[in-house]
From TrEMBL:
Name of protein: DUF1343 domain-containing protein
Domain (Peptidoglycan beta-N-acetylmuramidase NamZ C-terminal): residue spans on this chain: 260-410
Domain of life, per lineage: Bacteria
Cleaved signal peptide residues: none
Molecular function as annotated in GO: peptidoglycan beta-N-acetylmuramidase activity
Domain Peptidoglycan beta-N-acetylmuramidase NamZ N-terminal: 58-256
Pfam families per the UniProt record, alphabetical: NamZ_C, NamZ_N
Amino acid sequence: MKTGFLFFLPLLLGFLFPINHLAFVDGPVTAVGVNANPIVTGADQISSYLPYLKGKRIGMVVNQTSIIGRKPSVDSLVSLGVNIVMIFGPEHGFRGNASNGDHVDDSVDSRTGIPIVSLYGKNRKPSKEHLANIDLLIFDIQDVGARFYTYINTLNHVMEACAENNKELMILDRPNPNGFIVDGPILEDHLHSGIGMHRIPITHGLTMAEFAQMINGEGWGIPKNQCKLRIVKVANYTHDMPYTLPVMPSPNLNTQQSVMLYPSICWFEGTIVSQGRGTYMPFTVLGAPALKGIYPFSFRPVSLKGMSETPLHQNTDCYGIDLRKYDITILRKTKKLNLQWLMKLYKAYPDKARFFDRSQSTQMGNFAFLAGTENLKQQIIAGKSEKEIRQSWEPGLSAFKQMRKKYLIYP
């Protein structure tokens, strides 16, 4: 009975969700056409890849954003008879409930009984032993398109493991909600870290599959083109298309507004200004106690389990800017990061010597590691104009944009 169902399922899904583009891609491809049909993620195109999984032992690199329809992709594929033998979870864990930066231990999934290996604990990539009994590894994680968001690092580590152990990697691609912005300083080599592995700007404008092709083609961490990729493309998608995430990608990106503002706000992690961690509106507000009397808007960070247990300025009123109703279409029109918030709050801060005086004990607390350059801090302090700051990002930014074209799958 199950065999018959699996045989007809691809035909049924192909009828319900017709795909107008070639589903599988090997290596860099040219841009595809776009029609008026709705966006369909790679994972939702089951008819394109389910037959390929038959008879294989599957490993999956997934988290809570990995869904087919509204159901976790692991659960869906297990119910369809796919032999998933191991799950690999990134930062925040497989079910997405660990705080940022928290060590995540190996475990067993209570729903399916499948072993879970954390890639944000003692392992940063699957080992030879992990992959010994796996025929195909599937990567299906929603990214937000920023250099300091660690899922692109996880992708790189997984590709290294696949290249080293001669395993094929299938990527079920998803849209990049910030795919319309390619902007920011290029990461300087001496600032390579866990929040910046690649010589790219702050926003790279790539989907995970496109980024994987760039890793492969540029030989970042692996010999060039040594990771065998099989890509299930997003249908009916272009980089300029608005895309609302069906599942929030991490505990502190809990609204669409926070996802869109994140690339322009995360560098505040390296300042004395709170980005709203410790509230239920993270990455949509900015403030600090010392700005009292300058800004009327205020919020109070507190310890929130699973989000921010020890936030900056805990239990203290912070005063600053409320961006919850900021018009995101402005970012879409300019296709640039917003530098004005950083420049404005530095100028308003009473004790400027303390503005960048965040804990330097971690990379996340160090402004240079977040910005990817030592220059931006000095430029803000010196009162450089936005035009002057942006000019300093060249010619690196333009060179990246040109190189990026080789790896695009979508217009």
